[in-house]
Structure formats: C-alpha cells, structure tokens
TrEMBL record:
Residues 126-177 form the RNA polymerase sigma factor 70 region 4 type domain. This is RNA polymerase sigma factor. One of its GO terms (biological process) is DNA-templated transcription initiation. SUPFAM superfamilies: Sigma2 domain of RNA polymerase sigma factors, Sigma3 and sigma4 domains of RNA polymerase sigma factors. The keyword Signal does not apply. It holds the Pfam family Sigma70_r2. GO terms for molecular function: DNA binding; sigma factor activity. Residues 22-78 form the RNA polymerase sigma-70 region domain.
Amino acid sequence: MRRVQAGDEAALAALMAEWELPVKALIARIVLNAREADELAQETFVRVWQQREKFRAGAEFRPWLFAIAVNLARNRLRWWRRRPEVALEEWTGNAASESGDRSAEIGRRGGMMGAEALERAERAGAVRDAIAALPVELREAVVLFEYEQMSHAEIALALGTTPKAVETRLYRAREKLRKTLAKWA
C-alpha cells in the first residue's frame, strides 16, 4: 500500500490481483448480484486509488479495503430501493435456479451419494437464502465474520461501528438464522 500511496500503478495492479476475488465475493454476498459485484469491485479499486492518501501508515489494509467495498454495496442497495420499477428477479438474476439445476443434476447422477449431495446443496441454498433475507446491517456482519473470517474489531473498522455493536449484530443475525433454518437442525 505504501507503493500505491506513492503513485505506483503497478502496485495497485498487484493489490487488485490479490484482493479482487475476496472483494467480489464480499460484495456479491451483500448485494446478491454477481454482475453488480463485478462492477462494484472495480469501483472499489478506483476508490482505493483515489483515496490512497487517506490510508494511515501502519493500519491494516483489509478492513480499510472492505470498508470501501461495504460502503459501495450499501450505496448500491439504497439506489435500487429508490428505483423499485426493476423487478427483484431481474436484478438478482437466475443464480437460485441455476444452483437448483446443478443440485438436480448431482442428484440424478448417482444414487445415495447423489441424494446426500442433493441434501447438502439444498441445505447450502437454504443458508444462502436465509442470509440473503437478513437486514443489510446484519448480513454485512455475518458475511464479514463467517465468510471473510474477520475479527469483531476488524469488522467494526470496516463497518464504522464498535466491536460491541458487531457482537450485537452477529447475535441478532444468528437468532434470525436459527429460527429460519430450524427445519435443517
């Protein structure tokens, strides 16, 4: 990051190569749209370049980067909420039906292993749907904690809140998920 702060574009390319997939995955889990995640990931790195002077030497890069990505994802969700003329199915694409098609194909291929694979795929789909149904502030905390393996302090930095607030959000999210996913327990 020091090289990026000095204006080294090659250093930015190296950061992008290392962090592009984690940033896309994070954004996709928040906005629930792969196409939007690609666009927002690119915008994240544009912002990294534009705001490079604001990065404090000695600070952790990952929470700073993810804070930019989460803020862009939040802004996009707000933008979509103000423009309700676009159907939700059109916005989110066919990811759910595609995963269902893949699950059915796995199930057709092979007997008991197919049934086990189908059940795992259904369970994974139910978890994805349950996380997607969470309010944005809870979903962000869950995605950063469970998928990105960030500490409460790192999440607090990324979301602009306190570690205690992160702990509360995770507790509330887990309670909602526990109720939603009770049939899978």
